């Protein structure tokens, strides 16, 4: 093609500028992650660049950190990681459970209501996280009872709702009413038709939403930064408290584990929605 | 066809997309001021050929000679060929007038001249009062005309159309075909139109180019292509032709419906042949008047108004016959009839 | 008609999600209520004092800095996002497309700390950039890019880039190749086509993306905290400082309301712009 957004032959200066800017964008996106990964293999104690020798010592350190017997202090990395995972799984479950019926109702219901509701559920995406953090902190503090990990779960649910709902709505888009009517004409009750026909067809979108909720909650820093307590803390908070004064290479090795997990999960989401829906 | 009159010479053009051969060795000479239709089923390469002419794709090999000079390296925006796209591609963010004037604006034509030219073109397409409307407010036929006016506004060297009428309903399409042909003659512009609709091609073309699998099967005037299809594909693609297996050539002749029919001397004896006969060129007669003609049985009849569609089984083949209603008195399903054809209306080619 | 969604069933289906978002709405209201509280530490009475107390040069500078950094970061992010969206939509190989998607999306999702570490390693005094420049003999002493506006700006651009790219990708998908070819056949060069056809047709998507990116950047907290240190007092950080050392809750709430107000204005203004400029655009 010689004419296009990015022509693959000819195109002169236009093509050059577009590709150059895209490369700058890719570099800005990826350089920090690449540098963290490289430095995590450094053999040195400091984080000077370039690393003089390569080793896996920091990875052994991380493993030791997780398996040490005296990981008894409440602030330990194991507790934080487990809390992070528990919160992420609960957030994932709740947000998906509430978004599937909502997506169905919005897709099949009144168009005007749909617009308003979509806007309402997009709000957490543009709402300043700091303020949300402070507000939730104020509310949690004013409660008389200790709500344990729910003080983190509840704000996280609000935070992931936009992403999960987008994915469920995207999944509903391709499902025509006729397919439900077919099921009903064969004798299924309307609810049964939803369960037997609509939900299975939504599966890919639902799974994508699930994973999105999981990774966003697991990586969330800002709100948790306000909400954490000595008893309930997550992995990003643990990393912050450890590196607030100086950066130590074992944290980089731990970061690489997180990067790998995130990349795997994003690839999974991308596979599931495979160009049918936009990510958000 | 004299060489000076060749406007565009497509000289051995091939195009590969990876391993897929989209066009192989296309040779065409397009006369100045003529209306050429590229006709073929989807995937035959006709759109690719048009896009190569327009410059949106480059040929893998071969040359494109416009008035004798190679334009392969000229980028599409410098070719000055007006094009009407399948989706019409009117710019939705511009009014009708701005759409039509866009090409003129790029050529640095003054504002007043632009307005005059737009007005003139809107008169030509018989929509004088829509200049300031947004494109979204137009009907299908109006959009069609605006797209044509926009392409003609730049006084194109070549006028290219990529299935522009395919989105219109049947009646509107018929009217637009007549209008398009009149416009083309008025402007005298060399025109290439891509279509998969044989009626459209017959209606519009001075020269019909039938493509299949990236190769030209026949290139001739529509009446020639219709009357003397070059092969069974062309015969079949250009409408209701009966393809009849007529066995092998014996002494320069084949057996067609019980009659010996001469074939082109180029075919050697024992070559297996096929004949194409159009439904309207088969005549039916009472068996008593058979006189050596083949005898068949009527399998199906349907009165279509001006004519009757009849299917006759002869020698294990079902032939479609269309005959005027007056000739069909006394015929019904199961009747035996004598079947004959006018030899001058038969094309015989290699099977 | 048995299939049609009845009003009561629609409500029943929406109820769980409405309950889930209720705490969020409660938090929004709570902040608003606190910002007009007569007391700094609890909700007590009504007063506009918290807002009046913010009329200081310090807070004014913070607002100005926030607007400036968010604006520049949004501009640069958009400038990079459009080519990235073009690249992403024109890649043929699914593997390449997937790699690029992950590369672009990762900064939005990945733990912000990890990315801050990356920038510290890149821009720090003994980081990649300074070491490289020094070994090339271009500089003698390290240049300071961290804990100032440059570092924060880079971090903001990086983390907000995906928010720009993916909405633009959706609008680019709706753009027909034939519109570009039509412009070209009428004589427009690639650049002319870009400015005369591509940009106007993408305009609604571009404004939408830019406004979300701006809102995201204006309310950034972790990036200025981690990359700006105490020196780059964007509003997010300033608000935190009102609570953490000062316990000025009502002041923080009032500052928060101002921040929300700013993002709201930007969002409304951009949706107004979209409506104004796309009056005739109907795809």
Automatic annotation (TrEMBL), chain A:
Presence of the UniProt keyword Transport in the record: yes
Cell compartments where the protein resides: Cell inner membrane; Cell membrane
One term under GO cellular component: plasma membrane
The ABC transmembrane type-1 domain, residue ranges: 81-269
Main location: membrane
BP-aspect Gene Ontology terms: transmembrane transport
Name under which the protein is recorded: Putative spermidine/putrescine transport system permease protein
TrEMBL record, chain B:
Keywords from the named record: ATP-binding, Nucleotide-binding, Transport
Keyword Glycoprotein among record annotations: no
Lipid biosynthesis among keywords: no
Example of a GO MF term: transmembrane transporter activity
Gene Ontology terms: biological process: quaternary ammonium group transport
Pfam families: ABC_tran, TOBE_2
Domain ABC transporter: 8-238
Cellular component GO terms, alphabetical: ATP-binding cassette (ABC) transporter complex
Signal sequence extent: none
SUPFAM superfamilies cross-referenced by the UniProt entry: MOP-like, P-loop containing nucleoside triphosphate hydrolases
InterPro entries: AAA+_ATPase (IPR003593), ABC_SmlMolc_Importer (IPR050093), ABC_transporter-like_ATP-bd (IPR003439), ABC_transporter-like_CS (IPR017871), Mo/tungstate-bd_C_term_dom (IPR008995), P-loop_NTPase (IPR027417), Transp-assoc_OB_typ2 (IPR013611)
PANTHER family cross-referenced by the UniProt entry: SPERMIDINE/PUTRESCINE IMPORT ATP-BINDING PROTEIN POTA, SPERMIDINE_PUTRESCINE IMPORT ATP-BINDING PROTEIN POTA
Protein name: Putative spermidine/putrescine transport system ATP-binding protein
Species whose genome carries this gene: Litoreibacter albidus
From TrEMBL, chain C:
Chief location category: membrane
Coiled coil: none
Listed transmembrane segments: 12-32, 63-88, 100-123, 143-169, 206-227, 247-274
Membrane topology: Multi-pass membrane protein
Domain ABC transmembrane type-1: 63-270
Keyword rRNA processing attached: no
Locations listed in the record: Cell membrane
Keyword Magnesium included in the entry's annotation: no
CDD domains (UniProt xref): TM_PBP2
GO process terms (BP): transmembrane transport
Keyword field: Cell membrane, Membrane, Transmembrane, Transmembrane helix, Transport
Gene Ontology CC annotations of this record: plasma membrane
Database matches in PANTHER family: INNER MEMBRANE ABC TRANSPORTER PERMEASE PROTEIN YDCU-RELATED, INNER MEMBRANE ABC TRANSPORTER PERMEASE PROTEIN YDCU-RELATED-RELATED
Similarity comment: family membership: Belongs to the binding-protein-dependent transport system permease family. CysTW subfamily.
Protein name: Putative spermidine/putrescine transport system permease protein
Organism: Litoreibacter albidus
Classification of source organism: Bacteria, Pseudomonadati, Pseudomonadota, Alphaproteobacteria, Rhodobacterales
């Amino acid at each position: 093609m010689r004419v296009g957004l990015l022509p693959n032959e000819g195109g002169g200066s236009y093509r050059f500028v577009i590709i150059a800017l895209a490369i700058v964008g890719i570099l800005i996106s990826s350089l920090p992650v690449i540098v963290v990964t490289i430095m995590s293999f450094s053999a040195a104690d400091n984080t000077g660049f370039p690393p003089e020798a390569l080793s896996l010592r920091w990875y052994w350190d991380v493993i030791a950190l997780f398996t040490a017997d005296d990981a008894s202090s409440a602030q330990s990395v194991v507790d934080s990681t487990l809390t992070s995972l528990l919160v992420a799984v609960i957030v994932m479950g709740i947000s998906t459970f509430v978004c599937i019926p909502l997506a169905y109702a919005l897709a099949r219901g009144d168009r005007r209501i749909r617009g308003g509701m979509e806007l309402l559920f997009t709000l957490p995406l543009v709402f300043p996280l700091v303020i949300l953090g402070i507000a939730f902190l104020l509310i949690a503090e004013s409660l008389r009872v200790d709500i344990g990990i729910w003080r983190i779960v509840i704000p996280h649910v609000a935070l992931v709702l936009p992403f999960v709902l987008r994915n469920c709505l995207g999944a509903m888009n391709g499902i025509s009413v006729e397919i439900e009517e077919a099921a009903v004409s064969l004798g299924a009750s309307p609810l049964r038709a939803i369960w037997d026909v609509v939900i299975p067809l939504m599966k890919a979108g639902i799974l994508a939403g699930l994973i999105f909720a999981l990774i966003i909650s697991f990586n969330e820093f800002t709100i948790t930064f306000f909400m954490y307590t000595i008893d309930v803390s997550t992995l990003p908070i643990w990393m912050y408290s450890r590196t607030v004064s100086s950066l130590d290479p074992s944290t980089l090795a731990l970061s690489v584990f997180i990067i790998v997990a995130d990349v795997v999960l994003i690839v999974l989401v991308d596979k599931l929605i495979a160009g049918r829906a936009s990510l958000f | 066809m004299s060489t000076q009159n060749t406007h565009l010479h497509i000289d051995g053009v091939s195009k590969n997309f990876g391993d897929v051969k989209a066009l192989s060795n296309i040779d065409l000479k397009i006369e100045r001021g003529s209306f050429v239709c590229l006709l073929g089923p989807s995937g035959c390469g006709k759109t690719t050929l048009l896009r190569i002419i327009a410059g949106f794709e480059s040929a893998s090999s071969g040359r494109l000679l416009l008035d004798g000079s190679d334009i392969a390296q000229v980028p599409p925006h410098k070719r000055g060929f007006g094009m009407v796209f399948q989706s019409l591609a009117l710019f939705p963010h511009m009014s009708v007038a701005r759409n039509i004037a866009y090409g003129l604006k790029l050529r640095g034509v003054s504002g007043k001249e632009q307005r005059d030219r737009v007005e003139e073109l809107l008169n030509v397409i018989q929509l004088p009062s829509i200049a300031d409307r947004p494109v979204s407010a137009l009907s299908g036929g109006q959009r069609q005309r605006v797209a044509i006016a926009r392409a003609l506004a730049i006084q194109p060297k070549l006028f290219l159309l990529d299935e522009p009428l395919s989105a219109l309903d049947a009646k509107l399409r018929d009217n637009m075909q007549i209008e398009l042909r009149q416009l083309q003659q008025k402007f005298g512009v060399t025109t290439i139109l891509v279509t998969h609709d044989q009626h459209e091609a017959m209606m519009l073309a001075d020269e019909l180019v039938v493509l299949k699998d990236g190769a030209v099967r026949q290139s001739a005037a529509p009446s020639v292509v219709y009357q003397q299809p070059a092969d069974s594909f062309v015969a079949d693609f250009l409408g209701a032709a009966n393809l009849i297996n007529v066995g092998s050539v014996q002494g320069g002749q084949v057996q067609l419906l019980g009659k010996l029919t001469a074939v082109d001397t180029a075919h050697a004896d024992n070559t297996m042949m096929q004949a194409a006969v159009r439904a309207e060129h088969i005549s039916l007669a009472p068996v008593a008047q058979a006189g050596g003609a083949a005898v068949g049985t009527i399998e199906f009849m349907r009165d279509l108004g001006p004519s009757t569609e009849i299917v006759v089984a002869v020698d294990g083949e079902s032939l479609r016959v269309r005959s005027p209603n007056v000739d069909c008195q006394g015929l019904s399903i199961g009747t035996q009839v004598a079947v004959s054809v006018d030899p001058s209306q038969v094309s015989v080619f290699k099977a | 008609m048995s299939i049609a969604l009845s009003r009561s069933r629609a409500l029943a289906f929406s109820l769980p999600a409405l309950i889930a978002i209720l705490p969020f709405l409660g938090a929004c209201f709570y902040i608003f209520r606190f910002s007009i509280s007569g007391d700094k530490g609890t909700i007590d009475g009504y007063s506009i004092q918290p807002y009046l107390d913010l009329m200081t040069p310090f807070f004014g500078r913070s607002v100005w800095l926030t607007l400036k950094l968010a604006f520049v970061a949004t501009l640069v992010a958009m400038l990079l996002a459009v080519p990235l969206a073009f690249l992403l939509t024109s890649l043929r190989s699914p593997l390449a497309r997937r790699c690029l998607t992950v590369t672009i999306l990762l900064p939005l999702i990945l733990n912000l700390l990890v990315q801050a570490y990356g920038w510290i390693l890149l821009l720090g005094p003994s980081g990649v950039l300074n070491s490289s420049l020094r070994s090339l003999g271009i500089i003698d002493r390290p240049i300071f890019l961290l804990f100032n506006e440059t570092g924060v700006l880079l971090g903001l651009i990086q983390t907000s880039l995906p928010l720009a790219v993916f909405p633009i990708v959706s609008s680019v998908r709706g753009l027909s190749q034939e519109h570009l070819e039509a412009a070209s056949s009428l004589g427009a060069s690639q650049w002319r086509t870009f400015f005369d056809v591509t940009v106007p047709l993408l305009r609604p998507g571009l404004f939408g993306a830019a406004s979300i990116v701006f809102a995201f950047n204006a309310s950034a907290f972790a990036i200025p905290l981690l990359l700006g240190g105490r020196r780059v007092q964007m509003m997010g950080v300033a608000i935190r400082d009102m609570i953490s050392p000062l316990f000025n809750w009502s002041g923080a709430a009032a500052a928060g309301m101002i921040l929300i107000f700013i993002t709201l204005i930007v969002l409304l203004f951009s949706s107004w712009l979209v409506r104004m400029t796309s009056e005739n655009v109907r795809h």
